[in-house]
Amino acid sequence: MPDSRRVVVVGSGPNGLAAAVTLARAGLEVEVLERNGWVGGGTATREITLPGFRHDLAGAVHPMALASPFFQAFGLTDRIELVVPEVSFGHPLPDGRTGRGYRDLDRTAAAIGGRDGEAYRDLLRPIVDRIDAVSQFATSPLIGVPKHLAGPAIYGARSLELGTYLWGLRFRDEVAPAMLIGCSAHTIGQHPRLAMAGAGLMLSATAHAAGWPLPVGGSQAIADALVADLEHHGGRVRTGVEVTDLRELDGYDGAVLDVAVPGLLRLAGDRLPAGYRRALKRFKHGNGVSKVDMALDGPIPWTDPVLRETPTIHLGGTRAQIADAERQVARGRIPDRPYILLVQPTVVDPSRAPAGKHVLWAYGHVPYASDHDITERATAMIEEHAPGFRDLILASTATRATDFERAVSPNFAGGDFSSGAVTMTQMIKRPVASPTPWRTPLDGVYIASGATSPGPSVHGMSGWWAARTLLDDTNIPLPSLSA
Ligand SMILES: Cc1cc2nc3c(=O)[nH]c(=O)nc-3n(C[C@H](O)[C@H](O)[C@H](O)COP(=O)(O)OP(=O)(O)OC[C@H]3O[C@@H](n4cnc5c(N)ncnc54)[C@H](O)[C@@H]3O)c2cc1C
After folding, report:
1. Is 452 or 196 the better-scoring residue by pLDDT?
2. By its UniProt entry, which Gene3D superfamilies does this protein fall under (predicted)?
3. Does position 150 have pLDDT exceeding 90, yes or no?
4. N- or C-end of the chain: fewer Cβ atoms within 10 A?
5. Quick one: which atom of ligand 1 is closest to the CA of 40?
6. Distance 411 CA to ligand 1 centre (A)
């Protein structure tokens, strides 16, 4: 695509917008086409229960907003207001104790106490101290040599420890292991597994390094900041436009697709070479999430006062209980007590609901394309740690795994919010084994979604890498992203 000047980006998720901003700043004429009537994909925020209650449709808490090299280069923290809570996550246990993930590793270790507190600190200290190098490594293709070796080497060794049968050896009590699996279970999969352990360690380390921020007003603020920058550099977004075939894009010089693997197969169809198509067809979807959003009449009456100020809460009990629930999901069953990730953003950001009211965001893991509605199970599990919670519910909206494709993004079809199973093999082959997996065999066509390296989460890195590959291929220098 040597003379490329007019580029289309299909999809306005964080990766599509990261690509669009990069290309517009490089001087290309960029148009983003978005199927939904709004921008943002997994970072959209909308009133889906009652007027005045703003709910994040997908991503709600954003460790990578601080740790992602793309967002650091973009200066996200200078463009939007982020609240970083003192406690990144809380994890109530069946015996009444709570694991508290402070934005301070020593304080967290002290709260765990005793030998396990020290073991937790020893596990995470070298990663927390090298968080930039580890983030750089974790957001780069796994095929490649990391720039700094010490951080990634320690991170890899610790992931190996937690991702194998050794995961039981470091701790004696329940609190620390529950906290670790609570972070690993942000990704769906069985435990212990290397990919789960790696993702969990990264999340735990960010919790104790810079913390887990929430954008004031909702995740939409991230998308809006990207769109503002895109428009400032001459680009534009058209919403309500679904691309169904690559032929519709023939008028452009290049295309960056913020679509998952099934989306690429649908759009490109027989135009893809047979070998590549076969490789894409081998790419496996992950299991799903079933989500509920609620408008609440008041704050959740958690028994532990610390949880009343903690936006992110992990429910599901001990490590053994969560591992068992995840095993059941992997076998295609709905666990009685699924792992529940709960976010109550209004405890730090009252702007998202009318005065005195609150919003709740929670999802549980379920098999791919399950039509199970998690509302009742989630309500009962919250009620165990917050008696009286049920009486506060003013309205609720369920998004079942089968609803995500229609209601949020085709990239989350079947509720697979990782756009492809998170396994070690698929973290290397994402979606194919290549140092530049964003380049498709079709001239001028790139794929940018979380189905590509470095994988899911709101970090913009897949989009940034895809745009960088396009710029490399056209000998256009990489632009600065800072305001
Ligand atoms: C319930 C849920 C909770 C999550 N929680 C978190 C969290 O707390 N923190 C976090 O970091 N991550 C979270 N994630 C993951 C995160 O949202 C995704 O990893 C991220 O959004 C992926 O970004 P993307 O740009 O690749 O795709 P998407 O965000 O899915 O964006 C793709 C966009 O492209 C559009 N599109 C696709 N195909 C077409 C087409 N053919 N024509 C036109 N438009 C098209 C879609 O409508 C969509 O807007 C969550 C996801 C879900 C579903």
Report:
1. 452
2. FAD/NAD(P)-binding domain
3. no
4. C
5. 49
6. 6
Distance 161 CA to ligand 1 centre (A): 31
Mutation probe of ligand 1 site: the residue of 438, 457, 459 with most atoms within 8 A of C-beta:
457
Average pLDDT over residues 104-118: 98
pLDDT value of residue 142: 61
Domain map (residue ranges) of the chain: 6-43+218-283+421-473, 102-211
Q: 445's torsion region: left (phi>0), alpha (psi -120 to 50) or beta? A: beta
DSSP annotation of 278 reads H
* Alpha-carbon span 349 to 214, nearest angstrom: 8
Q: Which residue among 32, 61, 458, 462 has the greatest number of ligand 1 atoms within 8 angstroms of its CB, and so is best to mutate? A: 458
For residue 55, how far is its CA from the centre of ligand 1 (angstroms)? 15
Residues 292/378, Cβ–Cβ less than 8 Å:
yes
> Which residue CA neighbors atom 18 of ligand 1 most closely?
457
**Higher-pLDDT residue of 65, 204:** 204
> Does the pLDDT of residue 2 top 50, yes or no?
no
- The CATH superfamily of 6-43+218-283+421-473 is FAD/NAD(P)-binding domain (3.50.50.60)
Residue 121 CA, distance from chain mean position: 25
Of the listed ranges 105-119, 184-198, 467-481, the one predicted with least confidence:
184-198
Residue located via tokens 């793309």: 70
Ligand 1 centre to CA of 403 (Å) is 14
CA of 176 to the centre of ligand 1 (A): 31
With a cut of 80, say whether residue 112 has pLDDT above it: yes
Query: In this predicted structure, what is the pLDDT of residue 160?
Result: 85
170: pLDDT strictly greater than 70 = yes
Which atom of ligand 1 is nearest to 411's Cα?
30
Q: What is the pTM of this model?
A: 0.95
**CA 418 to ligand 1: nearest atom:** 19
pLDDT tens digit string along 373-414? 999 999 999 999 999 999 999 999 999 999 999 999 999 999
1 confidence band (pLDDT: 50, 70, 90)? very low
The rounded Å distance from CA 425 to ligand 1 centre is 22
412 CA distance to ligand 1 middle (Å) = 7
Contacts of 416 (CB under 8 A, 6+ apart): 285, 286, 287, 288, 368, 401
Q: Ligand 1 pocket by C-beta < 6 Å: which residues?
A: 10-16, 33-36, 41-42, 58-62, 64, 242-243, 258-259, 263, 289, 291, 363, 404, 408-412, 417, 449-450, 456-458
DSSP 58-112: S----HHHHH-HHHHHHTHHHHS-EE--SEEEEEE-TTS-EEEEESSHHHHHHHH
